[in-house]
TrEMBL record, chain B:
Annotated protein name in UniProt: Propanediol dehydratase large subunit
Keyword tags: Lyase
EC identifiers of the protein: 4.2.1.28
Record-annotated membrane-spanning stretches: none
Amino acid sequence: MSDEGTNQQQQAVEEMELEEVGEAELGDSSDEVVIAVAPAFGDQGKKQTMLGIPHAAILREIFAGIEEEELKPRLIRVWRSADLAFIGLDAAKLSGSGIAISIQSRGTTLIHQRDLLPLTPLELFPQAPNLDLSAYRHIGKNAAQYAKGDSPSPVPQTNDPMSRPMWQAIAAVFHIREAEFVKQEKPVELKVNFEK
Amino acid sequence: MQAEEREAGNKTEAKRHKRFEVLENREVNKDGFLKEWPEVGLIAMGSPEDPEPSIKIEDGVITEMDGKSRDDFDPVDDFIARYALNNDIAEEMMALDAVEIARMIVDINVTRTRVLEVFSGLTPAKIAAVMDCMDVVEMMMGLRKMHARRTPSIQGHVTNVHDNPVQMVADAAEAGLYGFSELETTLGVVRYAPLAALALLVGGQTGRGGIITQDAVEEATELQLGLRGLTSYAETVSVYGTDGAFRDGDDTPWSKAFLASAYASRGIKMRFTSGTGAEVQMASAEGKSMLYLEIKCVMLSKGVGVQGLQNGSISAIGIPASMPSGIRAVLAENLVTTCMDLEVASGNDQSFSHSPYRRTARTLMQMLPGTDLIFSGYSTVPNYDNMFAGSNFDCDDHDDYLIIQRDLKIDGGLVPVDEQDVVAVRNKAAQALQAVFEELGLPQITDEEIEAATYAHGSKDMPERDKVQDIEAAEDMMERGVTGLDVVKALGEHGFEDVANNVLEMQKQRVSGDYLHTSAILSPDFKVVAAVNDVNDYQGPGTGYRLEGERWEKISNIRQALGPDDI
């Protein structure tokens, strides 16, 4: 398992191209999971998280996790907010299955469901510095299982009490920069091209 | 450009001084530090964008506050102007010099009551100006005089990484022996919340009667648990100093006020939470300093009418701590809270530094003066189990903390405990929860789990539970409408009569509501100790809270100290 993880890290894609293909519509397919990225994710700024994980690699892993469960990932960008909960809930409401994953540039992630309150997601991963690529894959997999109506065991989280002293101020700067890209526009559908 | 490159080149090639290499590996250098960036609000105190103090009152209505006319107020300004100032005296108080007000705070000959009166007529910018006149020693002097309840106390965190209720019940009971008066939990998986509330209730009341408990989860769930008598206070109702930050939280000052009333009207103690750095963390600081925005939160809380506030940066602490004068700003926000006659649960509750020196220095600011709740909270579990992402002190620091209390003759809220007493109370609490689970039809707690919980350092020593089953049972428990009284019955029927009585007492407290008074905690015999019957009357040496008598005996009597016969 850990060997496999290492291989994934080594082969991780570093680059991708994101292409906007119109307004994101309400999905009619119950076997999709929507992944919603925050305004600066993937093609603005540094294109990597606080830890330096390429955004492309993260998306690839989340896609893979969803596909392992034989469901379909659909990528959108939410423009109106840099707030993870609102991005996630907006996306869940557009998702055919009602399940969505939202992710910020710094790497913070959650799994949301359309009937929940904004700040009560199914699973929240508030400590981005503790997420590695295998965790992102697992998040994709769990989201897909929720979409199928299953109750997966939550993705295990490591709790590093020293994460805040090291990262919080830097995380704030990431978020301030992300918020600069917010605009009052509707979510857009994204086509992604992963490059090796 | 060329010069820069050359400089960078020289830097990498320069021969390293060995002392700097050693310094770089010190714990403190794992912390994050930033330079000020005032344009976005990355500044602890005194941003160039902070307004100048001013007030205009026409026909009893504030028409201008801090340079802004009423038409330009955002909802936070509006709320403060309507509800947080005493318009009858505001112009008079605003006319006082900031430095004069700062001196009144420090002066032992000026009463607490007089300072409260002055502060009732100050605007946010004026209060910021007052704080700017004070250094940390003066602020500590102020806190000593201004905190509302005379007797200091302490709140604890009880959490674990697997949300394991068996470990939680034992940890809560142990915390009771150490003297915590409030216990707070939160979850990795929110849907576990009902089981955590049960564990904290049963464990807390096994450790010592009268501990009040809360389940810090999403607001609707938290309220529901309180209404059912499974928790007895709430504090994670967050307020912010800008409208933008409020919107991010899907809220307004009015919605928070409504929520506060929902708790209080059902006999649940309630305080708000805020803290320096929260707005800038949400990219909504509008270029204002962290302290200025936090002062608005304190005033907003006062205006809402809640009895208290948890602040001291709280979960944003890494941000002010990265700034010059940041920890001073954190102390200032606690002081402002007390000057508004609110209970202060003064932070120290989140890890902010790798350095034991920085951690201690930061905590002494509240520990030495004493506050209503010096920590909000102290991690009663190892930090690897702390689901608030780590506290400034954890259970592995207990002896250090107890000895600092003894060294300085300071009451930090904790007392030394006997190891075998701890073992016994952990075991009893776990058995009590086993009985409650059985009676309420929740997933079984095995004897093996009880044994593990009795001696566990933390979750590493606990057998795993079936989480999916637990979560389903938790949802079912809420659907079935289980309440605190069901817990009383279950305990009673299984021979845990003392714990049953304590849980019943907690239900009665909710009906009488006396513990809704400012700064209220409950003594082990369920007597309310609050700012009404134990008001801080500090006026210099020989007054106020004094650590003496039986309490001092207890705190001095640490297990490590040898007597003549031991040598």
